[in-house]
Amino acid sequence: MDEAARQERIAEFxxxxxxxxxRLTVQRRVILEAVLDLDNHxxxxxxxxxxxxxxxxxxxxTVYRTLDELNSMGLISKACHPGRVVRYxxxxxxxxxxxxxxxxxxxxxxxERLDALVIPDTSGWDFEVSELxxxxxxxxxxxxQSERKEESx
Amino acid sequence: MDEAARQERIAEFxxxxxxxxxRLTVQRRVILEAVLDLDNHxxxxxxxxxxxxxxxxxxxxTVYRTLDELNSMGLISKACHPGRVVRYxxxxxxxxxxxxxxxxxxxxxxxERLDALVIPDTSGWDFEVSELxxxxxxxxxxxxQSERKEESx
DNA sequence: TTAAGTGCAAAAGCTTTGCGGGTAG
DNA sequence: CTACCCGCAAAGCTTTTGCACTTAA
Lengths: 153, 153
Description:
Number of domains of chain A: 2
Strand order of the largest sheet of chain A: 4-3-5
Structural class of chain A: alpha+beta
CATH architecture of the largest domain in chain A: Orthogonal Bundle
Number of strands of chain A: 5
CATH superfamily of the largest domain in chain A: Winged helix-like DNA-binding domain superfamily/Winged helix DNA-binding domain
CATH class of the largest domain in chain A: Mainly Alpha
Largest sheet of chain A: 3 strands, mixed
Radius of gyration of chain A: 18 Å
Oligomer: homodimer
Shape of chain A: globular
Order of helices and strands of chain A: HHHHEEEEHEH
Mean pLDDT of chain A: 92
C-alpha cells in the first residue's frame, strides 16, 4: 500500500473512532498500521508478530479484539478462503483473489472482465448483497515446482 | 441432491477407492452418504452428528479424516467463506454462493451472467487456475428481520 | 473522574496426531 | 496374512471470555 493511501486510511480510522466514541489508543493505531504494512492477507497471529516487535508486552487478545473492530468499522475485511484461520484483507477497493490451495497464499488481481461483473438479481432469495467476490483457486508456480520435484524423486 | 445423482456419486466413490487402493469401509460409505444428504454446506461437526446416529460409537477423528479424503478425491470440496470452521460443499457442478455474514449460512445460486464468466488470463502470475468461484456476501432475509426487531426495541 | 480498553490467565472450539487393536482385501 | 483403517486419548492451534488494572477523554 502506498504512503498516501496508508495515511488516508489512518485518518479515516481516527475520524470513525471519534465519531463512534471509540478511544484512540497506541495499540489500536499500531495494530492498524501493522495490518496495512503486511500485504499478504495476514492472520491475527501474523499481525500479532509484527505488533509485538513494536509494543513489547502487547497481548494477543488485544490484536484479536482490535482486528475484529477494524473489520466492523469497514477499515479492513475478512478474506474468503477454504482454510480454518481467519485472514484479513486491507484492500477495500474492487479486486479479486488467486488462492493457492497448496500453500494457502493469496495473490491480488484486477481483471477488466471480472470487474465488469454485475451483481445478479437476488430478490428471489430475499438476500441483500453487499459485496461480490471472485476467487480463483489453483496452484501457484512455486508449489507446482515443488510438486514436480517431489514426483521425480 | 436427487437420488440418481446421489447414487452416481456413491458409485464414483467406490470406483475411485478401488482405483486408488483405498478400502471400502462402512464408515466411509456412511460419511459420504451423510454429507450428500446434508445440503447446507455442513462443517465436520455437522456431518459427525448425522453419522453418529447411524454408526453408534463412530469417532469424530474418522469423520475429519474421511472428509479430508473425500475432498482429495474430488468427491466434495471445501467451501470458501470468511469464518474459521471448515465447511464442505457437495455440489461439484458450476454454481455460486450467497453467504450471509450474519448467520454464516450459504445459499446456492445459479446465474447465467455469473456462469458466463471466463477464467481470466493469469499467466502473468504463474498460477494454474483449477476453479473459479463467485461469492455474494450480504445478509439474508431472516437476519435483516431480526436486526430490525433488535433496533425497534 | 469514569467508562472503555488492555493484559493475563484460563477456557472454549476446532482439528490433528500417535498409537494399539481391528478388519478389508 | 498384513497393510490399511478405526477408535481413543491427548495434544495443538486459533480464538474467546472473565476479570482486575490502566488510561484516554
